[in-house]
Amino acid sequence: MSNQTFETQCLPCTDEALSLGEALLRQGEIIGVPTETVYGLAADASNGEAIEKIYIAKGRPSFNPLIVHVGSSLNSCQKLAEQGLLDRDKISEQAVELANKLMRAFWPGPLTLVLPRGPTLSPMVARGLETVGFRMPGHPDFLKFLDRSGLVLAAPSANRSNRISPTLVQHVLAELSGRIPLVLDGGACQVGLESTIVEISGPSATIRLLRKGAIACEALEAEAGVSLQALPAGERLLAPGMMSKHYSPTKPLLLVHEDNLCLELQSLRQSGVLAKISVLKFSDSPSLTMEKELQICGSPLELKYLPCNDSLAAKILFQTLRMCDESDAQIILVELPKQRLQSGLWPAIWDRLTRAGVRHLTDRPSDGST
Ligand code: TXA
Ligand code: MG
Hints:
Layout: E1 9-12, H1 15-26, E2 31-33, E3 40-44, H2 48-58, E4 67-69, H3 77-82, H4 93-106, E5 111-116, H5 123-126, E6 131-135, H6 140-149, E7 153-154, H7 169-176, E8 182-185, E9 196-201, E10 206-211, H8 217-224, E11 253-257, H9 261-270, E12 277-282, H10 288-298, E13 301-306, H11 310-326, E14 331-336, H12 346-356, E15 359-360
Helix pairs in contact: 9-10
The structure holds threonylcarbamoyladenylate and magnesium ion (MG).
């Protein structure tokens, strides 16, 4: 089974394609699906064998649990518990109230809530943990798919393990073609960054941030009415996506502060690095002068830009990193703006860049990421 190869079909989300996708999932196959964050690789969450196929196709470490995606009728703890997805006996009244409140505010959307796992989910989803992450996706075609089929789907991002998350259907094909029978094309992911993951537990409904993501922490805190707690370093494996190296291009990616870009380029050249360098800058007004100055510091290089607006930057971050990875440059150098903004999607953007970077040429940025 592990060596099975497919001629991967890539189809827009017509009713026929959704029916084909449903049939494949019911047969225990895995398929690529669009979400508003990144593309996912989905399996029926009650089918342990199908879930195993996700791990094989991705080369995912076996200890890393999956997020479960639910349709729009499963919009409260009660509804999840009625379907046996959530264990109501293991969660306090206060935690239920808080979880319901966050579901009302942010679902469908990029918020994953980690709660006690119920019996109808395959234990394979949680990889030995008693909890599981739930999310109701905001992509209209995927939500329609979940609603029509009534399926509950386990889905990680549809990339090979540790690689850059896919935000266009072409990325899924580049990563998984031949390994899966179908990917549904839902266009470019509108958000471009993975969901924010929080765990709610305990008698007083403690809320802990497991992964920074597409919902800003301040928005969650405003809704929850309490502060998010950070994950202690010793508990990192609770959310293995928090592993320090993740989301990586295949080429070395170096992070450098704005003021030092020219110096770093010069010192790379002086130390004998002759390779072409891909330089990624945050700028809304790229100028020829800026480009010329950089070429003087260390050509040959190619310049790519990310917008200074956080939502716009998030939307094309992974796509742009992938382009740098695919170009003929051999090193990627990402210039971090001097001003490290702590609100909106910036902390999640820094988090992903920091995890993608293999070496920091200048002071390691500290965004409090755990
Ligand atoms: O936006 C997203 O969340 C995307 C789309 C496809 O929904 N999914 C995604 O899945 O990013 P993945 O597998 O790439 O990342 C899921 C993260 C992993 O780091 C995993 O460790 C964590 O969620 N996770 C899942 N279940 C957990 C649990 N019970 N406790 C702690 N962390 C959990
Ligand atoms: Mg992932």
